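Module 6 notes. Inverse folding takes a fixed backbone as the condition and produces residue identities as the prediction. Think of it as a translation problem where the source language is geometry and the target language is the twenty amino acids. Below is one complete input and output pair. Work through it position by position during the lab.
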């Protein structure tokens, strides 16, 4: 592709260089300067002169230092300096000086070291370059960064390779490795590997020095020479055309951080017809560019070309050897501005900067004066003209370049330029959006949409809404769909975008795309707002797709909601819920429990029982065409027996039939549960055990069974049965269940018209009261029994609570005389107070008395009399209060009472006489003992039975003992051991009476609780409670 067809821009600013302290009308800084060689590096500019001096120019373009290359003690080095090279990243400077009368002299200088005598930089090494003693000028020079390899080319076509340590002056070896008839125009070592590129001012890396290949150009050929190994000096011709001096350069700018050129070559060569890239294997890319070439240099990612006027001879390609030599010699003897006047005034030198990778011209300029030298320093490109003027070319910023390209609508080039510069992706997307807006304005909707899509990033950036508004037209709906799909792929879509995309699908009725959108590759995950998509699918009537999305995202509550509210498929919903984990299945089951009970009551009840008993097992989804692997008949029979035996212990396992757990007719057992195989089966499924989960309280399910009493009873009874057998139900849960069952039993009893069925329900209710009275609150039973008119319940509760008097009273209040009689007979023995109440009730009216009968009245009076429940006077007062009972009815009772009182009076009189006689006798005995002597006639000891002998002890009670038999201790009072127990008893009784005499509270309490007050007073009087206290002192 010809460079003339490339687009041209002005990406560089040009400023003349002059010292800061000089006036504007001052002459050019290098006008008339004697410059025979020039190089830049380490933030300095180095100039070589014809008298062998080196001038160091600072960044202010002031000569900071000057030194001579001729040292004391050396005879060489008095010629002009023809080549300079500063080793980037170091303080080393290489000079080659020659005067054509002798061979060139190469020196290495250490700019950071100073000779003490002269103050000049220290010369590290010096050597004469061997050219076989042929007097030809050095036309080319190359060196590796470590100076371990140097190559010098001469005008006679020979190349000298120098190896050694020039920095430490440890000796070198020179060898002429190539000779030809054409002059050597350029030398270039192969650059280091990529690891050494892009590191500005970096020191040389050992082992990464490059130089394995030496690229050589003559006036007639381009070739390579090996510098290492046995093949040293063996040429390999890359091209049978050569180039002029300065028209070959490495394809890398070692002073820049840029990546260099990417055209498949290590060097670039400029000829009059084109630019050529070469590598070790031959020629690479080629770019046509007609015109003479003076020099070429790589600056950053650009190629800087100097093209002399067409009227001047080209240095790029020489047609014959003599002309090439003369052109080469002119560059080293110097050129002055005096020769300019002989040329045509309209002939100008063209300076061009091209980007071969992106194929555009970054800068193009015509210079009136010819170009003497070009160099790179301080991040800019400099051009030194023949009239001594120095121009600085500074690259504008990337944003300025992009603005220039935007103004010319060159968005593709702007994108490529930004990508090459390593612009962040976020900024690149802004350029994409600009290009898309441009294409949209031109009417290229498809093309603009592609760039709008490319402008999408990982986040929902600004501008998305603008793009969507542009394509809301019905004719652009396909572009809009494409854009919205990409938004979802980039995770940049909001719920509104998802809604809009689904609306577009619905508007086009494109079910296939809708399916593809929601059922894409599962491994990638969903790229949209699932909740929005589900809601949109439900709204548009795509219920199956909504179910798929919800199930895929584990949104089980939404799945159940759609299946119940939209699809109305109750059985499938129950199956789906029973495949979920316990913690997820429970809320969904309870949310629609009433609907399930209405449509599938038995299946729902079974599911609730299974969960509330802790035996819930998530079922596996059944798939068609799958079957359990068959086993041998013998093994299958044993496994079948094992599973059936184990399942007998799990009465609520799915698929297991039981007498008190009805199952839905025709329902197949869930997959994953063990069953007993039929006779034709040879194996069975493995047994799945229930998972551990928090069992909810049974009362949480009560509200779900409203209007479903039959299923409610079934649920409660089965829960209760399991809880009583396993002990899983706590006391509160049992109370809730028993109370609720009692209420439902009474409701069912009142609701039925069948007497047998009513008795059955009432019997169940009575059984709860009789057997579980501690678990049912009495007030609840009484309230429920009263509301249901269940008298047996009230009676049972009062009986269990010991409220027998209340039972009798309720019968009396209700006028149930027979019930009152039954209660009296049943509870009279345990509750004697019922008899006085019964006497009052029986005689309350003639009707009640007739219903009771005189016989029952007599029995009541007999019990009252026998147990002393009432005084006769009280009985008479009770009977006479209503005037219902007659004297004849109580004649026998009164006669018996009078006879008993008479007998008691007689018995009391007899006891009084007996006590008087005993008192009189005791008083006489005491008087006799105190007034008359006592004769002791006992012959034997009362203790041992032996005859008495001295010492003998006699007591007034007429008992005698040996003194030794009394075991008396000295000083202790003696007591008859025969009468001692009786005496001790008397003393204890007396002490007790004295203690009781001081306990007045005991007397009051006993008197209040006693039935016969007079008897109590008499008893305490006899114990001395009411005796006068003994006198003090």
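Target side of the pair, the amino acids:
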């Amino acid at each position: 592709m010809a460079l003339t067809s490339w687009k041209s821009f002005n990406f560089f600013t040009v400023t003349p260089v002059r010292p800061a302290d000089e006036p504007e009308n001052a002459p050019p800084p290098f006008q008339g300067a004697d410059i025979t060689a020039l190089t830049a590096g380490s933030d300095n500019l180095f100039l070589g002169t014809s008298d062998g001096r080196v001038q160091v120019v600072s960044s202010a373009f002031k000569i900071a230092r000057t030194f001579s290359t001729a040292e004391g003690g050396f005879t060489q080095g008095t010629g002009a300096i023809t080549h300079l090279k500063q080793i980037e990243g170091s303080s080393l400077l290489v000079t080659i000086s020659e005067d054509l009368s002798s061979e060139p002299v190469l020196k290495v200088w250490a700019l950071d070291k100073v000779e003490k005598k002269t103050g000049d930089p220290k010369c590290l090494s010096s050597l004469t370059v061997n050219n076989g003693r042929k007097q030809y000028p050095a036309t080319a020079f190359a060196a590796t960064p470590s100076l371990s390899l140097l190559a010098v080319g001469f005008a006679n076509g020979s190349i000298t390779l120098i190896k050694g340590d020039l920095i430490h002056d440890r000796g070198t070896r020179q060898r002429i490795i190539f000779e030809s008839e054409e002059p050597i125009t350029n030398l270039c070592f192969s650059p280091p590997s990529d690891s050494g590129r892009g590191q500005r001012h970096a020191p040389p890396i050992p082992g990464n020095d490059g130089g394995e290949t030496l690229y050589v150009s003559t006036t007639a050929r381009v070739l390579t020479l090996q510098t290492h190994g046995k093949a040293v000096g063996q040429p390999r011709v890359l091209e049978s055309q050569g180039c002029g001096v300065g028209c070959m350069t490495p394809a890398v700018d070692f002073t820049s951080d840029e990546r260099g050129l990417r055209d498949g070559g290590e060097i670039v060569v400029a000829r009059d017809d084109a630019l050529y890239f070469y590598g070790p294997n031959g020629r690479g890319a080629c770019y046509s560019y007609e015109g003479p070439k003076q020099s070429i240099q790589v600056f950053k990612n650009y190629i800087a070309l100097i093209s002399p006027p067409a009227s001047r001879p080209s240095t790029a390609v020489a047609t014959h050897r003599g002309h090439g030599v003369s052109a080469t010699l002119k560059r080293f003897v110097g050129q002055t501005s005096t020769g300019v006047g002989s040329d045509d005034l309209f002939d100008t030198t063209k300076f061009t900067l091209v980007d071969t990778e992106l194929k555009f011209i970054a800068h193009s300029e015509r210079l009136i004066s010819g170009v003497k030298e070009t160099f790179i320093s301080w991040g800019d490109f400099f051009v030194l003209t023949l009239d001594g003027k120095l121009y600085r070319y500074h690259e504008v910023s990337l944003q300025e370049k992009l603005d220039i390209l935007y103004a010319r609508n060159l968005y593709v080039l702007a994108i490529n330029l930004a990508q090459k510069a390593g612009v962040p992706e976020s900024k690149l997307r802004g350029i994409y959006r600009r290009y898309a807006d441009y294409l949209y304005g031109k009417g290229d909707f498809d093309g603009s949409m592609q760039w709008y899509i490319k402008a999408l990033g990982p986040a929902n950036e600004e501008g998305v809404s603008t793009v969507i508004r542009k394509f809301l037209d019905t004719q652009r709906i396909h572009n809009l769909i494409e854009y919205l799909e990409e938004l979802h792929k980039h995770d940049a879509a909001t719920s509104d975008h998802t809604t809009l995309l689904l609306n577009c699908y619905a508007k086009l009725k494109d079910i296939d795309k809708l399916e593809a959108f929601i059922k894409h590759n599962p491994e990638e995950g969903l790229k949209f707002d699932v909740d929005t998509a589900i809601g949109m699918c439900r709204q548009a009537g795509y219920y199956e797709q909504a179910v798929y999305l919800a199930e895929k995202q584990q949104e089980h509550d939404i799945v159940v909601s759609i299946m119940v509210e939209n699809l109305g498929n109750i059985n499938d919903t129950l199956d789906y819920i029973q495949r979920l984990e316990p913690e997820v299945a429970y809320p969904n089951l309870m949310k629609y429990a009433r609907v399930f009970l209405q449509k599938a009551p038995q299946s729902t009840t079974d599911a609730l029982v299974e969960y509330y008993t802790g035996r819930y097992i998530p079922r596996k989804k059944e798939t068609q065409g799958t079957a359990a692997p068959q086993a041998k008949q013998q093994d299958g029979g044993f496994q079948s027996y094992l599973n059936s035996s184990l399942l007998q212990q799990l009465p609520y396992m799915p698929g297991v039939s039981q007498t008190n757990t009805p199952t839905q007719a025709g329902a197949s057992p869930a997959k994953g549960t063990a069953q007993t195989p039929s006779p034709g089966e040879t194996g069975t499924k493995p047994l799945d055990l229930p998972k551990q989960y928090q069992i909810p309280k049974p009362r949480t399910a009560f509200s779900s069974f409203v209007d479903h009493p039959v299923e409610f009873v079934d649920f409660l009874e089965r829960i209760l049965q399991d809880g009583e057998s396993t002990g899983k139900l706590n006391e509160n849960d049992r109370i809730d269940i028993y109370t609720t069952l009692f209420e439902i039993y009474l409701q069912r009893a009142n609701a039925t018209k069948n007497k047998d069925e009513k008795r059955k329900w009432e019997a169940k209710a009575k059984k709860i009261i009789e057997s579980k009275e501690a678990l049912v609150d009495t007030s609840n039973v009484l309230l429920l029994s009263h509301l249901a008119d269940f008298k047996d319940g009230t009676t049972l509760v009062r009986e269990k609570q010991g409220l027998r008097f209340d039972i009798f009273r309720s019968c009396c209040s209700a006028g149930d005389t027979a019930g009152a009689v039954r209660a009296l007979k049943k509870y009279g023995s345990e509750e004697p107070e019922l008899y006085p109440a019964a006497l009052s009730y029986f005689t309350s009216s003639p009707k009640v008395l007739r219903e009771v009968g005189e016989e029952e009245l007599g029995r009541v009076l007999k019990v009252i009399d026998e147990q002393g429940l009432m005084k006769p006077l009280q009985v008479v007062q009770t009977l006479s209060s209503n005037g219902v009972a007659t004297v004849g009815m109580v004649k026998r009772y009164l006669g018996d009472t009078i006879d008993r009182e008479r007998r008691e009076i007689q018995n009391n009189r007899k006891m009084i006489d007996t006590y008087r006689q005993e008192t009189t006798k005791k008083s006489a005995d005491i008087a006799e003992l105190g007034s008359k002597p006592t004769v002791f006639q006992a012959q034997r000891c009362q203790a041992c039975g032996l005859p008495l002998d001295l010492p003998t002890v006699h007591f007034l009670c007429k008992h005698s003992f040996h003194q030794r038999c009394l075991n008396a201790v000295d000083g202790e009072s003696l007591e008859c051991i025969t009468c001692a127990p009786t005496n001790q008893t008397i003393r204890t009784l007396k002490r007790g009476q004295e203690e009781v005499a001081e306990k007045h509270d005991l007397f009051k309490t006993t008197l209040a609780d006693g039935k016969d007050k007079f008897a109590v007073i008499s008893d305490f009087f006899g114990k001395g409670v009411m005796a006068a206290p003994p006198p003090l002192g």
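Reference fact for the lab report: The radius of gyration is 65 Å.
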